[in-house]
Amino acid sequence: MDSVSHPVTRPPTMEDVAARAGVSRALVSIVFRDQPGASDATRRRVREAAATLGYAPDQRARLLGSKRSQLLGVAFGVDHPFHGELVEALYTAAEAYGFDLALSAVAPTRSEDRAVASLLAYRCAALIILGASMPTALLSKLGTRVPLVVVARNVRSRALDVVRTDDIDGARQATEHLIGLGHRHITHVDGGKAPGAAERRRGYARAMEQAQLGEYQQVLTGGLTEEDGLRAGAQLDPGRSASRRPTAVFAFNDRCALGVMQAAASVGRKVPTDLSVMGYDDSRVAMLPWVNLTTIRQDTAQIAAEAVTRAISRLDGEGPGRPVIVAPQLIRRGSTLPLGRT
Amino acid sequence: MDSVSHPVTRPPTMEDVAARAGVSRALVSIVFRDQPGASDATRRRVREAAATLGYAPDQRARLLGSKRSQLLGVAFGVDHPFHGELVEALYTAAEAYGFDLALSAVAPTRSEDRAVASLLAYRCAALIILGASMPTALLSKLGTRVPLVVVARNVRSRALDVVRTDDIDGARQATEHLIGLGHRHITHVDGGKAPGAAERRRGYARAMEQAQLGEYQQVLTGGLTEEDGLRAGAQLDPGRSASRRPTAVFAFNDRCALGVMQAAASVGRKVPTDLSVMGYDDSRVAMLPWVNLTTIRQDTAQIAAEAVTRAISRLDGEGPGRPVIVAPQLIRRGSTLPLGRT
DNA sequence: ATGAAAGCGCTAACAA
DNA sequence: TTGTTAGCGCTTTCAT
Prior knowledge:
Oligomer: homodimer
Strand content of chain A: 5-15%
Largest interface: A-B, 66 and 67 residues
Distance between the termini of chain A: 61 Å
Shape of chain A: elongated
Low-confidence stretches of chain A: 1-6
């Protein structure tokens, strides 16, 4: 329990620090930007004065004054855990280059347009949009106004940069993992028209064909949620003799996989002994001990690093580059088992 | 597929708009702030000029220039779904008062201190911290520097405002719901030392005692995650005759409840027929069809509105007020059943 | 190595 | 109703 709040006081300015250190504002500015042009003695004095005053540069003024505003605007989905991870990684990546992040949330009641408009109003040097949902045409138009990096969505436009996971490869890895375990009847519960769904279908199809398993291919319409997986899972068995039932399922993502597992459980099929199940994303739920889901991990750190790198290179005058495709990684856990192993 | 990006052009300034509309900058400023002092004709001309130029005021300059920066800084946990909901609600609430939000994320690799420092650097007029985890003393100190509202955590300090759910009442409602269904052996799997855990224990204890069920009280150490619930759930049965086993469990939150359900399932007890389970939070997972968890909902809209209101009243010169305690609400779903009903 | 001074794009007080 | 003019707290030339 502390004392009653004092009347809030004006924070110290660069002027205050300069006065206390007995130098000009320009010197203080140089010191705080770690630029050459000040003696070590001065630097120390300035730092000390700043410390005792509790000074921190006013970012508003800094942004306004400098031509190159070291500010990256990030639009992210507030209800998407994967975006959360990306945001964290983006902070790390941006920091390494001395850039700051401006966050703008997208939510059911806050459109992507609004989020972007807000970022633009703060004159962010560049924009990074996670899982952009707006039409390609609009993204392209936006890309001509400001350096733009679209993350985790496949956009074909030369007006912007794209950084995303190689979903075809991820799906291929998942499918090949199951094939390697001896499975033949492998069903894919897909993501419908979600971003990345088409790529994952292709990766699955390719792997199956390449292993001469084309005749076993089966794609069920799923989606992004547990409910979608549950619905699709219900169609897994009906009307088939046991010998023609799938022994493994590759689901669009972890949440969908959970639904499939639930569906299996409801008809008495145990995972992984009766059915192997794979997810995608390596979300928190996949790691839970009783879920223990074999899955595909997207490399958030690398995706973030690439996104920041692209954004900054745009600021250095380069045009948009080719899409950056980041390799995913197979995470082996307990939800998949060799065929016939009990 | 669009054309190659043009060399990024300088966004239009207020000066540009003024020139095109044939008025002074001051007039444009007045129009864009919706302030009195401009004729309707002028307003239209200005709006039109701005529209054709695609002008939007530069927030950096606006913030710098105005004495009262209408900016609320929000620190939130990027991996906490509940915070996501609050952020969304905060946008809505802030907007109603013409305030803007500056978001700063807290994550495993980004401390609350850093998040707050960043907000301070942008000279936010007031700070709203969701689920603050820093020591009370630091919060109090911060509260003397800038108007501060702590959300979803019980802090006893007169230097700041607190807005939170009435967890004692929430726990009481949960427990009474179970009692009302005829349960007697009701166990509480608690949240350890998580924010709100102590209050929920009290609410549970009070409800039990008030119903003369004090002898049946049982509190198991749980936590915030599924794993915690799983661990606690494992201790539910051992060494007890069936007649002395709990028939209902009130878990600290939804995730914890999930763990308890899993633990029950692993020893063959079905929910809700063999065991009623309650959660807390009404998170997304609680609504899933096969989870269908009876739970307690926190009123995010009201919490957000109160937080913004408190912050703004502080800016109007008022001191911190008494803690705002928002009432929670029971959400009846399928995970609880009357005792003995099969 | 240091300081003076001109912006950056606004807001706000004051004149006209 | 309008326009003029200082700032806001920095960055950034350009002298010294």
